[in-house]
Specification:
Blueprint lengths: L4 H18 L3 E3 L10 E5 L2 E9 L7 E5 L1 E6 L2 E6 L7 E6 L4 E5 L7 E5 L22
Parallel strand pairs: 3-7
Antiparallel strand pairs: 1-2, 2-3, 4-9, 5-6, 7-8
Length: 137
């Protein structure tokens, strides 16, 4: 199924809302598009600011996530690192698996790779398997 970029983002946010609800969270939505997060998840007195990303699976079976914000205007395209103090959690929605994966940005450097498919060489050391990130930490 083909989607426009903004539609992909909307689908990712919707999938995150459902998944978080199924994990027992109350989901709150900001009244602006200019917040550094897409939604807030609340459970047991704890609020989490969640940034949602829609990511397709790469041919090698990996989901790539850069902790950066990108945009374009008439003068060009821009990418800047995110302020990890403004987001508690990333939710990565993958349409190929129809699953959400939850990542704490402070636990990684400037990017992270989640492996959905087992490597052909069977390696497991040093690999972030996507299945290990299915639940909110």
């Amino acid at each position: 199924m083909s989607h426009h970029t903004k539609s992909k983002g909307d689908l990712g946010v919707l999938k995150a809302q459902v998944d978080l609800f199924e994990q027992g969270y109350t989901v709150c939505m900001p009244l602006t598009e200019h917040a550094p997060f897409d939604l807030v998840a609340y459970k047991n007195g704890r609020f989490l600011r969640v940034q949602v990303k829609y990511r397709s699976l790469a041919p090698n079976g990996v989901l790539q996530l850069k902790f950066a914000s990108s945009w374009s205007d008439a003068r060009g395209s821009y990418t800047v690192p995110i302020d990890k103090n403004l987001v508690d959690l990333y939710c990565v929605y993958c349409p190929h698996t129809d699953e959400c994966y939850y990542i704490e940005p402070g636990s990684f450097g400037s990017n992270v790779s989640l492996r959905v498919e087992t490597p052909k060489n069977g390696q497991s050391k040093g690999i972030n398997f996507a299945a290990d990130y299915r639940r909110v930490p």
